[in-house]
């Protein structure tokens, strides 16, 4: 992190929708997805991108959609953070995996501004979610890519495995050879000091 810049993380709510909109830009984060992939799958590409945008605005307005990271007051990072039960495509695509009966929350997708990549923004988002899980006695799951696997996907929007392990998550299984399932449980989630909230 350069200079005196400090990363702060907060829950995405209707009041900071404009910040998310500015962060995602005209491209809608990635090819107009507006973070709808784990809900719709490829269907997000088959409809008008403005509908994806409207859906994310509605989801944020509901109060359970994601996290926003700020650097010196400017939005620089996003993470989809919502109950696993709301991620229809995740559950359908990996229906052969036993997620169990826990009412877990999923930290399933990230978008970091190009100007802030390599500055630990993803780590701060992960740490915030782990702390939230501890405070709310809730299991937090992630589905990061293990880039050490030969032939691993280069599409690392679900995050990368070392970032989750560094935050105290433990691996529970694999959705595929290169996609881990990791979890932070309330009894294993030490508060990550230095993660500021707004």
UniProtKB/TrEMBL annotation:
Domain of life the protein comes from: Bacteria
Residues of the N-acetyltransferase domain: 7-188
Protein name: GNAT family N-acetyltransferase
Organism, scientific name: Microlunatus ginsengisoli
């Amino acid at each position: 992190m350069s200079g005196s810049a400090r990363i702060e993380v907060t829950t995405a709510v209707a009041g900071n929708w404009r910040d998310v909109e500015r962060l995602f830009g005209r491209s809608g984060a990635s090819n107009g997805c507006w973070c709808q992939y784990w809900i719709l799958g490829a269907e997000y590409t088959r409809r008008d991108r403005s509908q994806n945008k409207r859906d994310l605005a509605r989801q944020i307005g509901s109060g359970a959609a994601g996290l926003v990271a700020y650097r010196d007051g400017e939005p620089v990072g996003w993470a989809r953070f919502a109950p696993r039960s709301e991620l229809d495509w995740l559950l359908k695509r990996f229906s052969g995996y036993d997620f169990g009966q826990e009412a877990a929350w999923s930290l399933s997708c990230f978008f970091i501004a190009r100007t802030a990549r390599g500055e630990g923004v993803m780590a701060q988002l992960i740490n915030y979610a782990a702390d939230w899980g501890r405070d709310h006695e809730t299991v937090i799951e992630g589905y990061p890519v293990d880039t050490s696997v030969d032939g691993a996907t280069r599409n690392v929007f679900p995050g990368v495995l070392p970032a989750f392990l560094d935050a105290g998550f433990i691996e529970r299984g694999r959705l595929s050879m290169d996609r881990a399932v990791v979890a932070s449980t309330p009894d294993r989630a030490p508060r990550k000091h230095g993660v500021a909230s707004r």
